[in-house]
Amino acid sequence: MPTDQLSETFAALADPTRRAILARLAEGEATVRELAEPFSVSLPAISRHLKVLERAGLITRGREAQSRPSRLRAEPLQEATAWLARYREYWEESYDRLDVLLATSQDDQSE
Question: Cα–Cα distances in Å, from 96 out to 24, 25, 84, 91?
């Protein structure tokens, strides 16, 4: 069963190590060794995380001499952000209605 891009994106973002890797790549490309530095995990473990991010389309991996620098691809994050924005709008509208209800209730009590 094929998985849609949004599901792949959220599945990749579910892991805190992968989110940290993306945050680092937002600063610029990096090699596996550079990405592994802040973590207490092996290089193969970081490589597995990178494969998940690559399958989700969140990074690209180049080939320069002996290294394979990774780069952030933000397009899938835009789709996730747009999906989340609909729910943010829903909650903001709900809070606005609650504010009106509370203000009306306070006005009724002060009379």
Answer: 37, 37, 18, 8
Domain that holds residue 91: 5-110
When divided into structural domains, the chain yields a total of 1
Task: Kindly give, in sequence order, each residue whose CB lies less than 8 Å from that of residue 58, ignoring residues fewer than 6 positions away.
Answer: 9, 12, 22, 72, 73, 76, 77
Give the pair of three-digit tokens for residue 107: 């006005």
Helix (H, G, I), strand (E, B) or coil at 21: helix
Would you write out the chain's pLDDT as a tens digit for each of its 111 residues?
A: 446 889 999 999 999 999 999 999 999 999 999 999 999 999 999 999 999 999 999 999 988 666 789 999 989 999 999 888 888 888 888 888 888 888 888 777 776
Q: What is the CATH number of the domain that holds 80?
A: 1.10.10.10
Record the pTM: 0.75
